[in-house]
Amino acid sequence: MFNPFMLVPCLICLYDILSMIIPLRFSWMVKILLALLILSGPAKMLLLRMTPSGFTMPEMTRNIALILSAMFSFMITAAILLIIKDASMILWRIFLRAKFPAHYASLTVLIIAAMSTVYGVWQGTRVPDVIRHDVKISGLGKNLDGLKVAMLVDIHVGSVNRREFVEEIVDRTNALSPDVILIPGDFVDGHVKDRKFDLEPLTQLRSKFGVYAVTGNHEYYYDLHGWLETLSGFGIKFLHNEHTVISSGDSHIVIAGVPDPTGGNHDTPRALEDSPENVPVILMDHQPRFARENSKLGVAFQVSGHTHGGQIPVVYQITRRFNGGFVRGWYDIGGMKLYVSPGTSQWDGFPMRLFDPSEISLFILHAE
After folding, report:
1. Distance between CA atoms of 269 and 289, rounded to whole angstroms?
2. What H or E segment, with its residue span, contains residue 92?
3. d(CA 332, CA 49)
4. How far is residue 170 from each of residues 16, 155, 164, 178, 290, measured CA to CA in Å?
5. Alpha carbon distance 235, 299 (integer Å)
6. What DSSP letter does each residue of 16-33 carry, written as one string?
7. pTM of structure
8. What are phi and psi of 366, to 5 degrees?
């Protein structure tokens, strides 16, 4: 039975074929082959909708999953460029009153979309670099000055990101000798039986004060309780509307966490309940859109993910609209510092980044 959700990618695919493939001065055989390649984009979405969660593909080899995801990315990228091409065609005919060079314009879109997709998928699936951020925290005690906090977020282990990827980000994180490791959600796209082996390297994460996490929205699309049990068994401490206190001598800092609102129990006041007075708070909140409310509760520093930094320029603006205006990088909200990570990886469904590299974040805390 046809799912209405499939209508949008099918229409985008049809637009790509009509606006980009048909005007080309190629043989019909070549055009048909190009059209079939573009049709793999909606086919990939159909595979997603066939799974119970609707957010992950059935089990298949990594290379096949990567090709299908890349073709979907190409379909979207081409559609964005074709809108520009067709708008230019209208203006060309109005102001120049001349025949529009449809073949060359369509060929240009095809080449740029293909090159952007190849580069963007490479950028989106490579092991991220470590990016260092020096952060001044008001009220931080001298014994915790220089505290190293590493953050991984939006790892999205699935059909494309597998065990080797996790092993490399674990190695890079451990090489930083962090004092604390934070993981604010979206570990996985898949069920425990399929993805436990791939996430197992997280057991090797090492830090002085422990590894802390909260759930992201994608954890709720699968077996939440099974994943919480599995990841807790890996040595990761989940903070469900609660906090812990890290101390060194007479210096203290609070690490608090709230679960993603997808679960219906996102409660920052509860997470901070009974926390020590005059002690700075670092809050993990997967989605950044609650930052303004959190800033009124005395949080010094909030870390979030979820947005993937927008991934590509046009999507950046859409992402911004649905996340309270927060997409990537640093924001100051009533004295609270907010950092929205571009993510350590990205969802298999759209594994593409342009001008938006992923990262392993390293925060060095300093007394303000």
Report:
1. 16
2. helix 62-95
3. 39
4. 40, 11, 10, 12, 29
5. 26
6. HIIIIITTS-S-HHHHHH
7. 0.92
8. -130, 145
The two three-digit tokens of residue 128, written as one number: 């991220």
Per the CB < 8 A criterion, the answer to whether 43 and 68 are in contact is: yes
Closest CA to 312 of 127, 137, 121: 121
Give 243-288 pLDDT, tens digit per residue: 999 999 999 999 999 999 999 999 999 999 999 999 999 999 999 9
Which strands form 329-333's sheet, in the order they lie side by side? 242-248, 251-258, 281-285, 301-304, 336-340, 329-333
Q: What distance in Å separates the CA atoms of residue 346 and residue 40, rounded to the nearest whole number?
A: 20
50-78 exposure pattern, b = at least 16 Cβ within 10 A, e = fewer? ebeeebbbeeeebeebbebbbbbbbbbbb
User: What secondary structure does DSSP assign to 247-301, as a single string?
Assistant: EETTEEEEEEEE--GGGS---HHHHTTTPPTT--EEEEESSGGGHHHHHTTT-SE
Residue 226 makes CB contacts below 8 A (sequence gap 6+) with 191, 192
Beta bridge partners of 247: 252
Cβ atoms of residues 358 and 127 within 8 Å: no
Q: Which secondary structure element, helix H or strand E, spans residue 338, and what is its range?
A: strand 336-340
Joined tokens for residue 305: 């993910």
- Could you tell me the domains of the chain? 4-125 (no CATH), 129-367 (3.60.21.10)
Each residue's pLDDT tens digit, 37-51:
998 877 766 666 555
CA 336, CA 292: separation in Å to the nearest integer?
Answer: 9
pLDDT at 2 over 80: no
